[in-house]
Design brief:
The protein is an alpha/beta fold and 361 residues long. The strands form four sheets. A five-stranded parallel sheet has the order 10-9-8-11-12, sandwiched between helices. Strands 4-1-6-5 form a four-stranded mixed sheet, sandwiched between helices. A three-stranded antiparallel sheet has the order 3-2-7. Helix 3 crosses helix 4 and helix 3 crosses helix 6. The protein is elongated.
Length: 361
């Protein structure tokens, strides 16, 4: 099997060198930790020194092994190193010096992806969770309620149309429906909330994999906080699901903060629980969660059902088993939050149990 050395090269200010692969190469335009193929009899350390001099005219020091992993039929030796000079590009189309917390903004090659996430989230001490569609699987019920109320007011919506509206805010969805009816936004909002609340407390349901994930992170000393527009009944739902003991605190509608994407709610959570923004990650399923956290310089993790497609990878319908948090799943029929679950593995500082998710799923 081919062996490759890849370097996590740090500069004196703490930033890390990443390079973008050029046109016509495998994984073109994706980012990677620079390095190259090990020659016969060559150590991973010597190979990295040689490759960085050849490709980037970059001398490095303090080379030491970090981890080893396999992807796409290649064994990768990841090593840490230091440098002070700027690289000179010969094969790559670009480079960046990136602070560890910014790693998640870049799309990496499959082999580098898990390592980049581990670096990005190595210092995370607290997770700030959105509630609906992130912890709790509330959208199916809310979608059903919204479609029914729309029909009662003479508007026919598909579940897909309704969910698209609800991924903004419930008020915005009701405003769109109000424009097609004689019913005010406030009346529709009240009706939706009442109908949903009546049924939601009867059988609350966490998203697939969330209980195991909360527990695994908790056991690593990472604390969980819920930042939601809902009222404190969300505590009752989490209690019914058996995970309330894993939650360290709440900020809800009842605290009086403006709604996200205004940053005040996230700022309020940081202040109330004496959290440093650099130690936190905000996790949500909507852009407004990301915007609220970014305003506070808090790292973000978004649920992106189409993140794989965004990277230009074809979504095969062929079933391939994967031993992830959610049990046996496959490309064709995996949970809606699968990409999020895979992303968050970095917080556990381990790969998925099958060790293949990056390459095959």
């Amino acid at each position: 099997m081919m062996r490759v050395s890849a370097g996590i090269v740090r500069y004196p200010d703490g930033r890390i060198l990443i390079c973008r692969r050029g046109e016509g190469r495998k994984n073109a335009h994706l980012w990677e930790f620079p390095g190259g193929k090990q020659e016969a009899g060559e150590s991973p350390e010597d190979a990295l020194r040689r490759e960085l001099l050849e490709e980037l005219s970059l001398p490095i020091a303090d080379v030491s092994p970090l981890c080893r992993r396999e992807a796409q039929g290649i064994t990768f030796d990841f090593l840490t190193a230091t440098a002070t000079r700027a690289p000179v590009l010969t094969e790559h189309e670009g480079y960046a010096l990136v602070h560890p917390a910014e790693m998640t903004k870049y799309v990496f090659c499959p082999a580098d992806e898990v390592v980049a996430r581990q670096i990005a989230f190595a210092n995370v001490r607290a997770c700030l969770w959105d509630f609906d569609g992130t912890l709790m699987d509330t959208y199916p019920l809310l979608t059903e309620v919204f479609v029914r109320i729309a029909a009662e007011n003479g508007v026919r919506l598909t579940a897909e149309n309704a969910l698209s509206l609800l991924k903004g805010t419930l008020r915005d969805a009701c405003a769109a429906l109000s424009a097609l009816t004689d019913v005010s936004v406030d009346e529709l909002l009240k009706e939706c909330r009442a109908a949903e609340a009546e049924r939601l407390l009867d059988a609350p349901k966490l998203l697939c994999g969330i209980p195991e994930l909360l527990l695994a992170l908790h056991e690593r000393g990472i604390r969980h906080y819920v930042v939601t527009h809902r009222d404190l009944r969300c505590r009752d739902m989490l209690a019914q699901c058996g995970v309330l003991m894993l939650i360290s605190g709440f900020l809800t509608h009842e605290d009086g903060y403006p709604r996200k994407p205004a940053p005040e709610m996230v700022q309020g959570c940081l202040q109330r629980y004496a959290l440093a923004a650099d130690d936190c990650i905000m996790i949500g399923d909507r852009p407004l969660d990301t915007r609220a956290a970014a305003s506070c310089w808090t790292r973000t993790g978004a649920l992106r059902a189409k993140s794989r497609a965004r990277r230009g990878r074809k979504m095969s319908r062929k079933s391939r088993k994967c031993c992830c948090l959610t049990g046996a799943c496959n490309r064709a029929n995996r949970p809606a939050n699968y990409d999020f679950i895979y992303m968050i593995y970095a917080l556990r500082l381990e790969e998925s149990p099958c060790g293949k998710c990056s390459a095959c799923c």
